[in-house]
């Protein structure tokens, strides 16, 4: 049994977005203090942290001060530069820097998952026009060209339907990956938590609906189509967590296809498709993440008794009328407090439980 962090200890959170905000709320409830850390921006986690450091990721002095002030450090943003994570120091940062390194590059991530027996979409690295031609000849069309690094919510992606689409692409400096287009029946994710002692628990998979590459909604129960594929996907997620000696919440996204689950991508953090667990599970992904990094016993992950649990993201100006949704029974609004309302920006979410 690992020693747990005593109450009043300080947890550092790298990243300042809504995931950090919800993490800090869970940490406060467990009696911990939080210090957030992120570069200048609309850092909505700051309002829920006891302190917030605004500094660049390459500010070695600020990172050293953070490490010294915290008993343990975690992250809510997977593009924290690996050097910044390493500066916190091995053994003080959960999840470990190796998880970040793997998840930050779609090529490394897919090769890693393949080495563990997982099945991603057919893929090929693309750094030159000749690479693209060769990759398209092997993989065929339709296909999706993605940046290897820093893409999220469908950004940094180009769908290629025809040779004309491919011809119009400027490869630029390369650093791309071509993926075969998967004809999926549904999308789902496996969200698990791994404690410092290696214990793992996972939440029920929901059916995830994306619109324009952005998660729009999650549905529980996910339905037979997804449920039949969860065991295989979960076994892979567990292997990934073991191989990385992971601590905290880990997410793997999948396509449910006629041939079984196809791995899409992983996130070394709590995930938008797990927001339903705040009201919909015995222990939320945020609370279990904090429990894991603090060395506390993990909480039960099963869903509370409900016929259906639906989480819907509130994008852009949808936040302005969100309070009206509270007229529906058992509906819970999470407003992230973002100042700038931009089209397609995740401003909040709403979870509705339908009890039988
Ligand atoms: P990503 O940022 O890679 O998760 O992509 C965002 C969304 O785009 C996914 O959730 C899918 O809906 C869609 N997508 C991404 N890659 C593929 C693929 N290889 N085949 C089909 N759809 C995809």
Descriptive report:
The chain is α+β, with helices and mostly antiparallel strands and 356 residues long. The chain folds into three domains: 94 residues, Rossmann fold; 59 residues, ATP-grasp fold, A domain (Dna Ligase, domain 1, 2-Layer Sandwich); 169 residues, D-amino Acid Aminotransferase, Chain A, domain 1. The chain is 27% helix and 28% strand. It has ten helices and 17 strands. The strands form three sheets. Strands 9, 10, 11, 12, 13, 14, 15, 16 and 17 form a nine-stranded antiparallel β-sheet that branches. The radius of gyration is 20 Å and the shape is globular. The mean pLDDT is 96. The structure holds adenosine monophosphate.
Tell me the number of strands.
17
Number of domains: 3
Largest sheet: 9 strands, antiparallel
User: Judging by the overall fold, what is the CATH architecture of the largest domain?
Assistant: 2-Layer Sandwich
Average pLDDT works out at 96
Helical percent range?
25-40%
At the fourth CATH level, what is the homologous superfamily of the largest domain? ATP-grasp fold, B domain
Strand content: 25-35%
CATH class of the largest domain: Alpha Beta
- Write the CATH fold name of the largest domain: D-amino Acid Aminotransferase, Chain A, domain 1
Order of helices and strands: EHEEHEHHHEHEEHEEEEEHEEHHEEE
Regions with little confidence, pLDDT below 50 for 5+ residues = none
**Which term fits the overall shape?**
globular
Name the bound molecules.
Answer: adenosine monophosphate
Quaternary structure type:
single chain
- Tell me the distance between the termini: 40 Å
Radius of gyration: 20 Å
Provide the structure class: alpha+beta
Number of helices: 10
């Amino acid at each position: 049994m690992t020693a747990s962090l005593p109450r009043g200890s300080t947890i550092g959170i790298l990243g300042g977005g809504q995931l950090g905000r919800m993490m800090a709320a869970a940490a406060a409830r467990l009696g911990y203090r939080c210090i957030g850390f992120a570069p200048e921006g609309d850092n909505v986690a700051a309002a829920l942290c006891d302190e917030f450091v605004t500094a660049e990721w390459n500010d070695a002095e600020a990172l050293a001060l953070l490490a010294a002030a915290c008993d343990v450090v975690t992250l809510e943003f997977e593009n924290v530069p690996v050097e910044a994570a390493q500066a916190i120091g091995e053994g003080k940062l959960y999840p470990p820097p190796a998880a970040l390194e793997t998840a930050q590059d779609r090529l490394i991530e897919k090769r890693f998952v393949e080495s563990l027996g997982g099945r991603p979409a057919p893929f090929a690295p693309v750094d030159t026009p000749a690479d693209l031609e060769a990759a398209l000849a092997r993989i065929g069309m339709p296909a999706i060209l993605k940046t290897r690094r820093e893409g999220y919510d469908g950004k940094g992606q180009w769908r290629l339907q025809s040779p004309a689409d491919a011809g119009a692409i400027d490869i630029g400096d390369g650093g791309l990956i071509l993926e075969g287009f998967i004809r999926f029946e549904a999308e789902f994710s496996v969200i698990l938590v791994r404690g410092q002692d290696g214990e793992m628990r996972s939440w029920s998979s929901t059916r995830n609906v994306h619109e324009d590459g952005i998660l729009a909604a999650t549905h529980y129960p996910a339905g037979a189509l997804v449920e039949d594929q969860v065991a295989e996907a979960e076994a892979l997620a567990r292997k990934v967590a073991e191989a990385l000696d992971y601590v905290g919440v880990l997410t793997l996204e999948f396509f449910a296809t006629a041939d079984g689950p196809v791995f899409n991508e992983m996130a070394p953090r709590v995930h938008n498709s797990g927001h339903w667990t705040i009201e919909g599970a015995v222990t939320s992904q945020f609370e279990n993440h904090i429990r894991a990094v603090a060395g506390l016993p993990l909480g039960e992950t099963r869903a509370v008794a409900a016929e259906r649990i639906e989480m819907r993201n509130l994008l852009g100006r949808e936040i302005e009328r969100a309070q009206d949704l509270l007229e529906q029974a058992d509906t819970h609004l999470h407003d992230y407090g973002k100042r700038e309302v931009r089209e397609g920006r995740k401003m909040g979410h709403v979870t509705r439980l339908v009890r039988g």
